[in-house]
Amino acid sequence: MTAARITEVDVIDIRFPTSRELDGSDAMNPDPDYSAAYVILRTDAGDGLEGHAFAFTIGRGNDVQAAAIAALRDHVVGLSAEAVCADPGSLSRALVGDSQLRWLGPEKGVMHMAIGAVVNAVWDLAAKRAGRPVWKLLTDSEPEWLADQVDYRYIEDALTREEAVALLRKGKDGSAGRELRLLANGYPAYTTSPGWLGYSDDKVVRLAERAVADGFTQIKLKVGADLADDVRRMRAARAAVGPDVRIAVDANQRWNVAEAVEWTNALAEYAPYWIEEPTSPDDILGHATVRRGVAPVKVATGEHVHNRVVFKQLLQAEAIDVLQIDAARVGGVNENLAILLLAAKYGVPVCPHAGGVGLCELVRHLSMFDYVALTGTTEDRLIEYVDHLHEHFKDPVAIVNGHYVAPTAPGFSSEMHATSIEAYRHPGGAFWVADAAGLTEPREGTNR
């Protein structure tokens, strides 16, 4: 095991035809085909263990994302598997620090998402070698080691290593009891499954009622295409779920700042809990203006925030009430650790973005670590849940009474079934070959 090396970095373009039933549709993304630029790290250890991860996209451009991951191959092949798994931060810093590839960011966009996929694959391999799920690997780790996994460049004005260690040491207090409660009760979830913009009013109402019956205390609706439609859908959803269930709304970056304030306030009669991505994810001061203009409705963002530096500024500017990490947007687990620590210092709750392909599977590990060994609370914290494509994963999410069940299988829950990979590999997988020949039927919807 000690001599094992990483021998291969396989990259696969995987796409699912979700646009055909408008699953995932919103005001800015009317036709998403949920996709994964999928990476597999293989070693010569002889133990059969591999590291699996992916960058999530929505169809066209997934080939570009896959090419970006492939560009990192020479940085990874030949590395000691033991050394990389013992210190994923070392690989993270090396990949981020490549001066020529860095020019394509820096630390943002396609190249940074590629780094995140490779780093997450290392965490999957490390957790499998340790025989633990990633959330458990993180919670069991020493505060000093976890703090050293974070890159403090550009964020030391908001979070130092010493502060990170102090937060993590404090998070250890009572962690054993919280771990038992997590295993017994799970982690709170909310669902976006009723809320896709392309759904009819009847479908929204039916799925909203089902969500409440399934134990969810919050749902989310997509908004931003037409105000009259949004008012009507909010009215119908509120009537369906009653006054005590939260309804979040998500504009997916559709609006200018003034428009975001006006539109959100037009929905205020139906008590939206938060407005998500009201404007450009890069507009920190714009978010601060929206937050002042729509209170007491909360402002949430994060799924398209490039890196820890922008999150730092959103917190410093008091521009958001809810921070939304994404497991596959930034530079992997290491950078998400930095963001979780920043949120903990500033006292802002984290409600991760999920859905897509495998995002629910991944991000539950980060929130569960945050609860057990960092903030110690689930108050006003929920993980997004969407009923999409879980059947393709070996360790799929399970929801019981509106809560994520804590995974127990070793790894990051990111490994897909080989049959799914072969069927939906683009363009040569069995589904896409049959589709090109006109032999496929409309996709079976997951939100029937």
Automatic annotation (TrEMBL):
InterPro entries: Enolase-like_C_sf, Enolase-like_N, Enolase_C-like, L-fuconate_dehydratase, Mandel_Rmase/mucon_lact_enz_CS, Mandelate_racemase_C, Mandelate_racemase_N_dom, RHMD-like. It is an enzyme of class 4 (lyase). The keyword Lipoprotein does not apply. It comes from the Bacteria. It holds the Pfam family MR_MLE_N. It catalyses: L-fuconate = 2-dehydro-3-deoxy-L-fuconate + H2O. Keywords: Lyase, Magnesium, Metal-binding. Residues 201-297 form the Mandelate racemase/muconate lactonizing enzyme C-terminal domain. Its cofactor is Mg(2+). Its EC number is 4.2.1.68. PANTHER family: ENOLASE SUPERFAMILY, MANDELATE RACEMASE, MITOCHONDRIAL ENOLASE SUPERFAMILY MEMBER 1. This is L-fuconate dehydratase. It comes from Streptomyces marokkonensis. The lineage of its organism: Bacteria, Bacillati, Actinomycetota, Actinomycetes, Kitasatosporales.
